[in-house]
Every structure is written in structure tokens, then in C-alpha cells.
Amino acid sequence: MANLPPPGTPPDDMVPVGDLKYAEDSVCPAGCVTPDEELVRFVTNRVLQELQGRTITPESPKLVPVGISARHCHLTEEALAALYGPGAKLHPYRDLRQAGFYAAHETVTVVGPRMRAIENVRILGPTRKYSQVELSRTDGFMLGLSLPVRDSGDLDGTPGATLVGPAGSLRLEKGAIRAIRHIHMSSEAAEAWSLRDRQFVRTEFEGEKGVILTNVLVRVGKGQILEMHLDTDDGNAADLVNGDMMRILD
Amino acid sequence: MANLPPPGTPPDDMVPVGDLKYAEDSVCPAGCVTPDEELVRFVTNRVLQELQGRTITPESPKLVPVGISARHCHLTEEALAALYGPGAKLHPYRDLRQAGFYAAHETVTVVGPRMRAIENVRILGPTRKYSQVELSRTDGFMLGLSLPVRDSGDLDGTPGATLVGPAGSLRLEKGAIRAIRHIHMSSEAAEAWSLRDRQFVRTEFEGEKGVILTNVLVRVGKGQILEMHLDTDDGNAADLVNGDMMRILD
User: Fold this and answer.
1) B207 interaction partners in chain A (CB closer than 8 Å)
2) What is the pLDDT of residues B204-219, one digit of tens each?
3) How buried is residue B186: exposed, middle or buried, by Cβ count under 10 Å (0-12/13-18/19+)?
4) Is the CB of residue B208 less than 8 Å away from at least one CB of chain A?
5) Residues 143-182 of A with CB under 8 A from B
6) B103 neighbors B154 (Cβ within 8 angstroms)
7) Phi-psi region of B105 (alpha: psi -120 to 50; beta: other; left: phi over 0)
8) pTM value?
9) B52 interfaces chain A, CB cutoff of 8 Å
10) What is the CB neighbour count within 10 angstroms for residue A6?
11) Per-residue pLDDT, B50
12) Which of B95, B91, B89, B73 is nearest to B19 (CA)?
């Protein structure tokens, strides 16, 4: 009845909508709701997305598909070399919704100041100009890290962590954060909805664990695919699965 | 800077406001914010509680202190005997805010259908007429349990789990739930605020991880101490610590 298939064994016909659907225990795996509920929810979300259409007009309902970001990291070329060996490259495992980005086959083990470890933390590609580990507050308690809420790349004053790969380990002096709640949005969608880049909005999800999230950052950019990124604490508090639609209130 | 003392070593002068302040990694330990922040927050919350006073009037701001419930269980006498031996008794470890209830020294290990275990799950006393394990959705993913949101004791159709104690193990056929968000409230407070038993309200917490929680159940009863109980997913999504004040919106 309520017993589930193990995560990591999603049906192949389930298209991942969010970023890291099957990566971690703490993010909703394909089997986190019963098959019937899942199917209904999947179809409903798809229909909503189709209704919303590719072209957003001022009349379009302000619905944004959710992508729950499980813990993951971004690495510089140098950090990747330290962890996976000189000249190592990332190998795409699954494309993300935002064009050009992918979850890599490669993962790291993250160790915090309590010397406790979280294994199998996915590396997202391509490599970046900074290294950053995105965790939840739940992860932070386990590791012993007080994680500030930051936009990507805004790393001054953030705590560090130790990363371990198959070829070596690396002490990051900073870069461990909780990612700020944010919505990727195209310029066209922002214009249609009268929203500005860097604006904060509130978003709502109904249900028995319904929430309104405040302080959701709008990030407008050319070619951005409409999607709201939340961490697993937000996702689990609200009972969200990838592809669920949240409504922008402001 | 952001490195923390290990949970379980709170300063002795911190009075626990919520239920299970130090019980688990996933609940905010005393050191989850920096000492200065913590002190300011602690004093602020205390002042707010004093301002609110013991007598709630219609004019009192509808502020409710939060208690984050870490994973825990309630057991029948029979279940306790199976786990801790015939005639075993619970030994109070820390009083809860609600009079007569306590966190016990005794804990259990909870094992789910993936055969993964969560250790040190606190037993709350006294024993009850039913056995029940209260977990978060995060815990459920780890264990492989799809946990319905239920009021305490409403256990028909809920999944089970295996409990392990020092004297034996026990298979619960049902009883694994996520506790519904709820507020304990005295009849006097409910009358002053024009709220009814079993009513649902919305509550708000501001901040960079601000939320409005919908579907918070009001439970009115004689002698109930005003307090809102949330699970660790809700608490971590909103950056709450025990004793933070949430405002009732409806």
C-alpha cells in the first residue's frame, strides 16, 4: 500500500521535469506517491503546462513548474582536476531543463566540520568560475554547517566544506550555501507578467501541506526556461514533486 | 564562523521552549544559529511571549510560539514491553510544554521497507492506547515510506514500520505518519481570538525563508498551552527555531 519501490528505479516513460529527479534520497523519487496519484499528478501538470503554452501572454495564469534541487555542487576546472584527476571531464548523465546544463555522472562526497559525510552529491555541468555546494538546512544540521541563503556565486562569508573524489580531496574555504528560492524566466514572460529581473515574488501551492513561499527571486534572462527552483526542505514542507505548478501571487 | 558545536551540547541556561529541542540532527539544535543571533532571537521571543501575557484577550496579537517536533514515537504499554522488556517503564528525560508529557530517555530504531534505519528516535511519554511513529517526508524518502498527513491517533490506512529496542523488535502494521500541522490552544485563548476547535488557520513567519503555512489545525482543550507543532521539514523550510513566534492570519 504505502510501501514504495526504491528510489532510482523510475519508470522510463517518466520525463524528468525538474533538475535532479532521482539523484538523492531527500528529493522526491518517482515512487514517492502511489502510482495512481503519480499518474494523475503527472498528467495534470502536463496539461497545465500545455494550457499555459509556450507563449506567455499577460492573460496566462502565472503558473510556474517546480524543480526541486537536491543537494549538488558546481566545480571549477581546477577543483574537478583535484577530485577526479588532471584533465578530467564531466560526463553528462541527464540534461537539466535550462539549456546547456546537465547533471553529470560524476559525484563527490561532502564532509563537514563534524566529520560526517554526505555521499553521492551530484556535480552539475559544465564547470564554472567558482566552486559551490548547494545543500538544505537539513543537510546543514547533519554536517554541522550553518548555511546562509544565497544567490548562486554570491559566496563571500559563506562556510566551506571538504569534497572528496576518487582521485583526491579538496578543502573549499567557502561556497557551502542554501540556494535562494528563485524562478528562471525569459524576458518575454517577464514582460507579459510585468515582472522585473531580481524582483521578489510570493508563490502558492495548495494542498494539505499547502504553503505560500515569500522571497522568491525572479531571474530574467534570454532563453531561460520558466521554472522555479526550490531546495528539498521547501519541497518536502509543501509536499511538492517535480513538475508541480506554483502560482505567482504578486 | 559558521562552524557549529555538535548538537546535543546546548548551553544549560537555554530553556527548551519546544518539544524536542535537542533530540535529533534534523531539528534545530541550540547551536544552529550563531550565539549572538541566538541570544537576540531567544530574548526577543521571550519578550514577545511576556508581552502577550498569560491572559489572551481579543486584542492580543495572534502570535503562537513554535515547537519543532523532531521524529518521535508514542507506544502502548505492550509495545514498550516488547521493545524494552516485560514491566519496562519510561524514564522522563525532559518535560514537554504540554503538562504531563515528556520526552523519555528511551529511544527506538525505526526500520522501513528498504531495510534502512533511523536510530535514536525518541519515545514520548506517557504510554498511550496506540503506537504511532511521527516522521518527516525527508525521513519517509530515506526509509521508503509514503507518509500520510494525519492527526494523532488517526491511523487507519497508514503504513507500518519495524521498531527495534534493546530487548526486542516489533512490527507495527500501521502508525507511521506525518503529524498534521496543529496549534494547541486553551479554551480561553480560542474564545478571545474567536477560533473553534478543529478549525484550520493560516500562519505566517517572515524572513528570508518566509512562509505562510495553510491548513494548520487548531486543537482547543482545557489546560492546553499555546504552541504550534510543526515537523522538521516545515521548520527547516522556514528557518524556524523553537520558540519563534508565528502569526495566525485567519
Assistant:
1) 215
2) 999 999 999 999 999 9
3) middle
4) yes
5) 144-149, 157-159, 176, 180-181
6) no
7) alpha
8) 0.83
9) no
10) 12
11) 64
12) B95
